[in-house]
Inverse folding.
């Protein structure tokens, strides 16, 4: 079984920074796309950023220029560097990976809370 564990969330003042990490463990053959999503209270889950195995990224307009996604394949880890945080960035952040054990499957982390105070 594959497990994803996020870390790095917390409470920060507006304008501050946080770095989220998500590590995959278990029977892992390869990991293609890694991504971060967020879900604010009463809202739908939305894509924040994703990164392919080749390093191509897709970043939501709302965070472009402030958030950076990166990955370390040797560590099965994806990162989200969040700078210039705003109160509207407050949400539960989830990582998602497409992991091939025998066939590709989608796995989600349990989520980490990010709260930005004004």
């Amino acid at each position: 079984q594959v497990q994803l564990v996020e870390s790095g969330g917390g409470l920060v003042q507006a304008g501050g920074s946080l770095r989220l990490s998500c590590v995959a463990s278990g029977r892992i053959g390869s990991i293609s796309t890694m991504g971060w999503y967020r879900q604010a209270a009463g809202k739908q889950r939305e894509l924040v950023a994703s990164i392919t195995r080749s390093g191509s990224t897709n970043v939501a307009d709302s965070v472009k220029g402030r958030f950076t996604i990166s990955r370390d394949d040797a560590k099965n880890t994806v990162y989200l560097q969040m700078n210039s945080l705003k109160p509207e960035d407050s949400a539960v952040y989830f990582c998602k990976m497409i992991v091939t054990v025998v066939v590709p499957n989608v796995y989600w982390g349990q989520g980490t809370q990010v709260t930005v105070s004004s």
